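Subject: Predicted fold for DNA replication and repair protein RecF, 423 residues

User T.R. writes:
Posting the sequence so we have a shared reference for the thread.
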Amino acid sequence: MHVARLSLTDYRNYARAELELGPGATVLVGRNGQGKTNLVEAIGYLATLGSHRVSGDQALIRAGADAAIVRALLSHGDRELLVELQLNRQGANRAQLNRSPVKTRELPRYAHSVLFAPEDLAIVRGEPSVRRRMLDELLIQRTPRLSGVMADYERVLKQRNSLLKSARARGLAVDKLTTLDIWDERLVVLGSELIDQRLALVDELREPLAAAYRAIVDADHGPGMTPLLSIDGADPDADVEQAVGSTASTVGTRDRFAEALRVLRPKELERGVTLVGPHRDDVVLLLNGLPAKGYASHGESWSFALALRLASAELLRRDSMTGDPVLVLDDVFAELDRLRRERLAHAIAGFEQVLVTAAVLEDVPAPLTARIVHIAAGRIVDGEGELAASASPIEVETEAAGEVEAAAEAQPEPETKTEAADV
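User M.O. replies:
I've generated the structure tokens; pasting them so everyone works from the same file.
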């Protein structure tokens, strides 16, 4: 699959932009802050329902506008698919597929992409929430229905935490919280599915992760991944070395989850928060048997994060009926030495479409520079086959944006807006 055309209206610093794309590599070049990343961020949003830079949608809508429109023409073989998304400042977001209304959570079923950006260094060095988000975004692309499961889990978790805080404020004893059992049951059902899905994904990632790391570094540092589960007593806020060498329990996930909630209920009531579940889990990234966080050098951490993204792309390529995901490298080559730049360019050569952003064109290996598009101040200023961005939306675009909203209004039950960062 590749993006044949990308159109933006009132997205970030673009009043309007249209860009023709095609298979192979395209480099978006421009000084920092000109809007290169905004273009690829929009493509990533269609695949993951979230931005890799911000947790909410408001920052994606151009100042002074009520909504932003992202429109992508996806091509696979002789089939084309028009995907449209309207991000609203007020109310639920709207989506269309070939001009027919769909729920926004359906978009990842059709738009697949993997984006690597400087922020991904936090996958290795950052907090557990970053690694959870990485896994969940990949899960959603592979199995879109899990977006609904994640949203349901978050709602149940919020309700349960509210009940715990209320009970703490009222001084209720543990044996008086009978209504908590209802929320516990639902939390266990939803949370156990997410835990099992993450565990299966980690198992699948191990082999392509090792292959991707070797391809980039040309050395075998034994990259690995070990789940750290709160239902088994692990504390993601503690020393991650506790996870090294841990073994999985033979008891079912639901039973372990339910037992953990029962044991920890007094402590949860004392603190007014749910202490176990997928929202508290982590995955330890290992190099040579040691946690990469705290032991890996900057270069090793950068290579590990990149290898994780390439491994994710390999899984999507293996599963998808629509071919390769769009591979996006946002300002990646500036952080790599010449040898690793060349090795990375070789590793990604087989993907149908690769989009690269760079502040300095010389940082990008020659095999990836067949097509170059220059970006300046929210405008596409040149590039083969490009349609220049204008200072304000044209009438046709405005009418099309209205079509998204009008068609979506016909839906009998608009869905509740969900941010991928909260999933």
